[in-house]
Amino acid sequence: MWPTHWPAVARDIAEALDAAIVAARASDAAALTEATEELAALPAEQVGAVLSGVVRELLETLHPDGLTGEDVQDVLTRCARAAALWFPAVDVDSLVTVLTGALGVADVEENPRRPERAVEAAILVIADLLSAAEVPADGYVRQALDEIARAETVEMP
């Protein structure tokens, strides 16, 4: 399903991320926990970059004319309420960290609220945004990984 020219780590991230998104969209807490554990076992910096990239692209899709504070609050509220119905372990502070970190408003590495819950929260936010946009995940995952690969090949002056 994923491009064969991607490095093995990129394919592993894409596969684990896909499994986590499927679990979240199906409201399957056990499968989400298992999939986020698989993601957490992969290189954290790379996983974080992909998750942030997917969140940013989905927010841009939903808000092409710009994102307001009220829009972010709506995402946070909608996501927290929906997730709490089937995933009582949802951590609202981690949802905030995911959104602000993806938008570049907060430095997640310097101020992690609950880093052990960040991957899980990112998946919940992504699943919520995918549902709101009514789009499949694979294009956003590909775009995030391709953008990271492109950025890594650009030489800095």
UniProtKB/TrEMBL annotation:
Superkingdom of origin organism: Bacteria
Full protein name: Uncharacterized protein
Annotated organism of origin: Rhodococcus wratislaviensis NBRC 100605
